[in-house]
Amino acid sequence: MSFEPRRLLPLITSHPGGRSAVTCEYRCGNACAHPEPNASENEYFGDVVKDLLSRRGALKAGAVLAAAAGGFAALSGTAAAEPADVAAAGHGKPGRPGRPVPGTDFEAVPPNKLDAVTIPEGYDQRVVIRWGDAVEAGAPKFDFAKQTAAAQAKQFGYNCDFVGLIPQDPLGIRNLLVVNHEYTTEVHMFPADQYDPANPTEEQVKIAWAAHGLSVVQTFRDPIGGALHVTPSRYNRRITLNTPFEVRGPAAGSKFLKTSADPSGRKVLGTQNNCAGGVTPWGTVLSGEENVNQYFANADKVTDPVASARLKRYGFSGTATTRKWERYDKRWDLAQEPNEANRFGWVVEIDPNDPNSTPVKHTALGRFKHEAANVKITKDGRVAVYSGDDERFEYIYKFVSKGKYKPGDSAHARRHNSALLDEGTLYVGRFTGDSPAAEIDGTGKLPADGEFDGVGEWIPLASGTKSFVDGFTAEEIYVFTRQAADKVQPTKMDRPEDIQPNPVNGRIYAALTNNSQRGPAGKANVDEANPRPNNRNGHILEWDEEGGDAASTKFSWRLLLVCGDPKTADTYFGGFPKDQVSPISCPDNVAFDRHGNLWISTDGNALGANDGLFSVPVDGPERGHVKQFLSVPVGAECCGPVVTDHLVLVAVQHPGEDAPSSANPTSHWPDGGATQPRPSIVSVWKKGRWGQVGRIGVK
Fold first, then answer.
1. Fewer CB atoms inside 10 A, N or C side of the chain?
2. SS3 (DSSP) at 204
3. Residues ≥6 apart with Cβ < 8 Å to 127
4. What InterPro entries does UniProt report for this protein, alphabetically (predicted)?
5. 3-state SS track over 469-518
6. pTM of the entire predicted model
């Protein structure tokens, strides 16, 4: 029987930041249309400083800001430790045009609206794997009109995001490719005459469960042609919403995690809304569970005021969900299983090298909308993990382990190092500007010292069973991290997303995607770390831990980029001439090449062009020279990325998602013709033999 599809979404085609209405609904539960969950009334430190400046004058406030007076390098102490060639090149100085630095020697791709992955001249590309392609043995050929849950559980999942590449040989010929599947968009996953958004079938719901999670596949890189191919392998594996996970760390067994299906509070089925992630030094993958609130129904029926406030702080609201999963499993119904929601929003870890291993949810890293989790080893051999809470006015966090890292990627080393994430100290970040409040006026004009910069500190929340927050037990801090963090006055940021340490200069870089709500009455005002009101284009933050040590509780910071149209006054490109950079908007995921260049993928370009991947040197005369390396198809977001000497990988997420349904697709990528769009992983390489001639960015 056929029927006319029901009304899908309000008749708006895009939301703030350039995303489509469909993306907003299915990806984050239309968060931009709702008040941000962080309604805390505590003064954050930027407001305290401004108050001091206005009430007591700059001389008295100077005592508060004395730590910032020395600037970026003075606190960190890294200037003297820099390699001579970096220091001579002008670390942190305003850029001057010159020869491209290694890794960025390509002709920039111009902004466009093409339904294609557009790459520089002299490069080639290939789709590595698509939604529905085989992962596990026995997977049938993908058939858009005849899907089953059993098939999807063996096939590549939907809406790929994080991409990790783990070498299995010294030359990088064989690798394990690990990919997150962030969310499902059911109105695009099924033929329009088969899917009724108001009444999905049980099989369709189970297909969506199987399309979440992660995929692991072994790949072979053609040493002559350059292409990356998926190969049948014992390593190939799908992790879905039906895969058992072990809960570890200080909140394992918590009363807040116990449900009727799991009275132990130590075993959860599945992972969902996995956004960015990271490959650990020991060869596993960390993945952040992000917008999990949208999957749970009937928050309005939770009457206990404490439980209701906790749900509200994490964005749980309303009655029925968009996907209607609660009709087929009570765990998605908060009225029946109020603790099930607390079992998501964690950093998860999988071991791609062991296809029989049980994935883990690490509670010591806190529970919030994790965008990512990336590791840096401290000077004394411990493990630091950085993660952002991706929502307007949320915070940046760091975890430092108690135990020490064991080098290597053997099975023993992997088990030892994974266990390090179960005990340590969880911190939240406070970023303080070093300029008078009057100089941060929202126009984008740099303060008198020539940069948006300052100092910061990591505020401890909990360590093991010890709480550092009045009124909260350690158990409550791990499970309700947002509310605990509110109490200690961290800095409200503009959607902190991917955070990664630079392997060359040692600094940490964070993408702050956007925040269209900063500045209006009743909202947090601009501060030096978030200097722009109605921030639709986002910015890139970098910081240097004191002494270059990830275990430090103090740091110095500055903004590398204030993104947007280079022709506008409120943009900044590390001091590099604005007439020579590519326009960039809404930075999301970040990565580094071996030269230490930052690579940025974007989500929701607010400048009217497709999203893409950009390179930018972070030191020397070319610091801030943004160049677009590729663009993705119509309606798509650029995710990943992975950048090696010979290969660039990106995840093309939700191509064509600006269409209201599959009835009239706006994209036919990657297969062309009249086909439906399919989220996919793409590899790009320089034409020619893959040796010196074929290196990315090297002519």
1. N
2. helix
3. 670, 680, 681, 682
4. PhoX, TAT_signal
5. CCCCCHHHHHHCHHHHHHCCCCCCEECEEEEEECCCCCCEEEEECCECCC
6. 0.90
